Amino acid sequence: MGCLVIKNGGAAALPEWKALFARLMPGLEVREWNDPALDPAQVTYALVWKPDPGRLAKMVNLKAILSAAVGVDHITSDPDWPKHVPLIRMGGEEPALQMADYVLWAVLSILRDAATWRVGQQDKVWTRQAGPARMSSEMHVGVMGLGSLGGPVATRLVQAGFRVSGWARHAKTLEGVTCYTGTEGLNDFLQACDTLVCLLPETPETIGMVTYEKLARLRRPAGLINVARGALVVEADLQRALDDGTLHMAVLDVFDAEPLPAASPLWAHPRVLITPHAAAESSRPARAEYVASVIQALEQGRDVPLRYDPVKGY
């Protein structure tokens, strides 16, 4: 079956990883990334989060690299990563369900202007909104990115009663979702929405994609939810949009620098809710089950989903 090396959770997590794979794939040897006795040539599979640059290249018998997260930029940022080896993004039902739960919470927080309540609680002020709250049917949410996470998110929002649009690089069809495609559809997509959910992968084309000019195209009161990567949003433009009222509220789970520096003005902004990159993180049992299914498929010569495509960049 081979040898799986894991860089996720450190040495303290190794007993749990071993117990999980002993049940799922008894013939698989499981080793920890920093094991001094590990022979790189013996490694056939690697499950990693932010691997040390150059380490994967030394594992000359790798059959596949599995990302411990949905994104793979933490691997592809290493210029020496072995590009001939299949790179598989983390999948399974659990991260999609977690992301859908998080985004629904974030959208509802914007719908009910929860940032105002947060400030009122901090200041011990009994703050009430003027007039009746908006209904979910009055809010139009746009999901940028309709892949393994964005698709389930859009579907969950439809089920919750929101009007939903989606935008993707390539044509998509989702029940109850108005889908837009490519550069030619981006402007119409933005102008149809009042709350933007960013779920695009980080690629050279998407870095810096969400600018002040794009946020200004949203309907008012406008909201932003970023659960993709911090680099996709121009932070100075985000700050400007919040300060001048172009953007009414933002829920942010990802940032250019993580942890978010204490000096960042976003921490204290009254129109921002911040979470610590926690929108979707699969449990170890769920990750182990997914990894086992991928290894089994590869060993049997079957294709696997969520394989990194260097042309698309994700």
From TrEMBL:
<keyword id="KW-0520">NAD</keyword>
<dbReference type="Pfam" id="PF02826">
    <property type="entry name" value="2-Hacid_dh_C"/>
</dbReference>
<dbReference type="InterPro" id="IPR036291">
    <property type="entry name" value="NAD(P)-bd_dom_sf"/>
</dbReference>
<keyword id="KW-0560">Oxidoreductase</keyword>
<protein>
    <submittedName>
        <fullName>Glyoxylate/hydroxypyruvate reductase A</fullName>
    </submittedName>
</protein>
<feature type="domain" description="D-isomer specific 2-hydroxyacid dehydrogenase NAD-binding">
    <location>
        <begin position="105"/>
        <end position="279"/>
    </location>
</feature>
<dbReference type="InterPro" id="IPR006140">
    <property type="entry name" value="D-isomer_DH_NAD-bd"/>
</dbReference>
